[in-house]
Design goal:
Helix content: under 10%
Number of helices: 0
Strand content: over 45%
Radius of gyration: 15 Å
Oligomer: single chain
Distance between the termini: 30 Å
Largest sheet: 7 strands, mixed
């Protein structure tokens, strides 16, 4: 990560994430940290905060590229950075994410190419 923007020749597609804290007592916000994950986020439902950790699902490349796959990453806030706590890479090779939701400790991801598999 280079400042606010990600730059790496090893990754063709990446999403930079910025986290801000919202306080109920004031209208002020605070910068909490930044991180980066390979791939692109489908929509707002592909991200979730649970027990202070950010969970995010991304897809790298696009169908019909045979290298398309998805990634689930969990980030924790640490001294102005979002650090990777866990990563599940290579979900549904050859397919892209069509839907993602989180409920409690479980994440649900639907991918698509010819069928609609559900991963949890």
């Amino acid at each position: 990560m280079d400042g606010w923007f990600f730059s790496s020749s090893a990754i063709d597609e990446a999403t930079t994430i910025h986290k801000f804290g919202l306080e109920q007592a004031t209208v002020a916000t605070r910068y909490a940290g930044s991180g980066v994950i390979k791939g692109r986020v489908l929509n707002q439902f592909s991200m979730d905060e649970h027990d202070g950790d950010l969970r995010i699902v991304t897809t790298t490349s696009q169908v019909p590229d045979p290298n398309v796959h998805s990634t689930l990453a969990v980030f924790a806030e640490d001294a102005g950075r979002l650090v990777l706590r866990g990563l599940l890479d290579g979900i549904a090779p050859g397919e892209d994410v069509r839907s993602a939701r989180f409920w409690g400790d479980v994440g649900y991801v639907v991918t698509f190419k010819k069928t609609d598999p559900l991963y949890s």
